[in-house]
Amino acid sequence: MNYKRLIMPVLILSLIFCTPMYAFAANYSGTGTASLRLEYNGNQVAQGDGVTIHVVARDAADLYGVQFQVKYDASKLELKNANPQGNYKDFGGIRINHTEGTVLLPLLRSGASVTNSPTVAKLDFVARSTGNADISIEGVKAVTSESYINASGYKDLKELAIAAGGALTIGIASGPEPSPSPTPSVSPTPSVSPTPSPSPTPSVSPSPSVSPTPSVSPSPSVSPSPQSPTPSPSATAAPNVQQALQELEKNLASDNPSQALTQLTTLLANGTGKYSSAEMNQLEKLAGELQQKLQNSVKTTADSATGSMTLDQDSLMNAVQALEKLSELAASHKLDLPSGKEIHIRLADHAASELLVSSDQAKLLEGGKVSLVLENGQGAALISPDALSNDKQTLLQLTAAEEQSERQADKRLKFVSGLHLQISTMEDGEAVAANIAAGQVQLKLTYDAAGPKAHKLGVYVWNESAASWEYVREAKQNDGQFELAAGEPGIYAVMEFSANFKDTENVYAEALHAIEALSAKHYMNGTGEEEFSPGKDISRAECVALLVRILGLDSVLSGADSFKDVDADAWYAGEVNAAQKAGIVEGDGVDFNPNGKLTREEMAVMLVNSGLLKAAASTTDKFADDDSISDWAKDAIYLARANGLINGVGNNTLLPKSNANRADVAVILLRLIEHR
To answer: SLH domain spans which residues (predicted)?
Structure first.
């Protein structure tokens, strides 16, 4: 029934965080006394042998959910795997502590039907050293699939009274040849007599209704040879790291991320100090591959009522918990994962596609701080869990936008690719547009990075009320995609901007490229509709305004500390004041000379004062006209040269006192942007 699927996340979390079972007010009354026992096949064990223990439920008519901990002697046994069996799943909740020798298993039966398999889990160990190894089960809590209405008026699951079976003691011999004793290893049977049964019986945990007498110690099936002393844990051979890494890689290749996560946990259990640099690099690489597997592991189905895609609850819960575990491992061991906690859902490439997220799924994602990433052929939208409704269904719609001919009013713009994002809540069967806060949606829009006009591309958002495209300056361009924070849902498009200046045909190639790029980024405008005036000298105010735009500094109103010759009403006042506040310009202490021509050495000082340069200046590689450089500008000029911003005008000369023209400034500013 539907309510059981809704209860599932609550049950798993309550098991993992040890919620007391008295939270379930009603008790289940079955036939007989239910117990959870450890069973072993009774074979004798030598050091290095594998040991398989089964966790078996007896007389448990309807064991729907169970949590228990198995404690083992970590000095003698190494836990390799812990896996649910039959219809039971762990949803990534198994927690292993190799140092303490414990494994916590929260299990939930898949489906409400009663399973026929009494085995709920299997533990695979390797015998590390000789001696008697004790294994016990403790902290058992369980519920049935039967529900009731609790005192608060909500549906709960009924508690199942279940007891833990007794401990097993496994004797580990010192060599591959077992001891001649035929007695199998069994868990102790409660009895007032220490005499063992004369005939071998299957190894099971004792009935929980009778406690073993403390004064009687059961004899193990195999005793260590007196000639073979038990080695200390430090003498135990270290595991084969390369073999373990290969097994992890194999599980990733076979699309088994759950087992791969268990293996990764085992590899990191005792820290990373024993691993070489190469092994750590491989481990980090495999952890990144595991993250990608988990991110893409959630299944989707079609909602019968709306036709929208929906998230499979079981695989979503499994992925969220596994990503949380992987994130904890990465943080603890300083592993650099390629991205954050995300669930990736692939949508249709060239059509509207919808994903319907339930309120319970929204809470699950929010609790794990896991974002949804919707992908199609033209990009992706990262939706923060904070953007999803906790009390209503959320409808996410992502359209791969086609040619925007009906919105192509500006002839300088040419559509390349785009996304149309809509976020709504479902109210009475109708989709109602939702409000999102800043930072809740991130967009990635793709383009051909190898195209000859990539430098002319930018991101624009359609302003419905103004019926125009607005440039999104904050979008970051990198390797075939733009990344940006979407302030609101809407249509976002990658556009090619062509200013089509008539007077730039004869400028040198690097200057033409820079003019086109800075025009497309809306940093540098022309001097007229079709003129750029590339050879025109640039003023000090014009250069400062360009730098302030590139640095993203906010305009500053004029005040008492402003330059005396900068009129508060001048078009450049806000930018010059911002540059003065940021330490980019100083003037002569009183005036700035905003309309004065900018010299090449003055421009170098402004570039260095922007704070974006890192490479150290060379003290030996000087310009041929070094003597003509002002002393106050020399350090800045050679620092700018070391960072590749200025190269001189040929023959290793700079001409520092010459005025900088608009074409040269465009080249240098684009170098600064690319350097950043």
So the answer is: 498-558, 559-621, 623-676
